[in-house]
Amino acid sequence: MDFIDFIQSNFTDFLSYTGYANAQIGNIIMILAGIFFIWLAIKKNFEPLLLVPIGLGIILGNIPFKADAGLEIGLYEDNSVLNIFYQGVRQGWYPPLVFLGIGAMTDFSALISNPKLILIGASAQFGIFAAYMLALALGFEPNQAAGIAIIGGADGPTAIFLSSKLCTNLMGAIAVCAYSYMALVPVIQPPLMRLLTTKKERLIHMKPARYVSQTERILFPIIGLLLTTFIVPSGLPLLGMLFFGNLLKESGKTTRLAKPAGSALNDIVVILLGLTVGCSTQASEFLTMKTIYIFIIGAGAFVVASASGVIFVKIMNLFLSKSKKINPLIGNAGVSAVPMSARISNNLGLEYDRHNFLLMHAMGPNVAGVIGSAVAAGALLGFLS
Hints:
The chain has one domain. The protein has 22 helices and no strands. Helix 3 runs antiparallel to helix 4.
């Protein structure tokens, strides 16, 4: 009889540790959200390199377990494996490594050959400051509003970097929101671009970009680093790594370093970043009214940013000669979603004229947007830290 009691007692204890015994409705909702992200990535091909790790991370972070058991398996439990991985997000050193990879993969020739395109990237940052004002109006503190506002740049790593410095309690919601809107670029931007442009504007053919010498490509990251970091020193971690990666690529002497920076190292960091960002969305921390507000503000910020770029090009064209006019379809590429936004510009241009290739032109404002969002993040960090 004692043996049977022993079995029953231990079996009861075992059941109390299972996910079935500890599951709450919030866990189920978040697990379904994670499955939805994975479905979007695989079935709809919405940025699978981002959404698959994030989706699996959401599922992983919401597997229910007995919180007071001291198992050290949860993301927010000290010494757990996930918590160790999460330090790269919390301490803000994953984003600079991502920027190193972006710099090592990016060709800035389109921007160098036509420097006025940087104005389009700058104009798209209106979304960030519009979101900042809206977040303040909804009752968020200035530090929280700044972290939320950077979603308007459609730049996940920058959003993580800034929120890790200013509002760690909202970092999971901000990161998932930023990456979600990055993945939804093909859904959000085309209708907006059609709405804001005429058929005549969509058919504008831009002159081919001029040849950019290797000397210019080498000088660009050095001059760009000095100009931007002297203006916003607080953006140094992101801007420094971005231009460092580009210098490795363009120097012609450090290809051995540029290749792993833009491939293996970047891929490893993206895996860990996506997984831990997803895990940070534990239902108890994520399912709040603040999260809903963040997604609403983020959507508005992204729309404003995309629209600002298109409208700014239309204004620029009022002052440009006919031969130098810019196709407004590249205005959407002013956000930092590289190269997704540039591909949208190109695809929409080809839809109206199969000989109108806009990809290389759109890459100019696209890479300018990366620089612009990092500068905006540095400015907000400098003012509010």
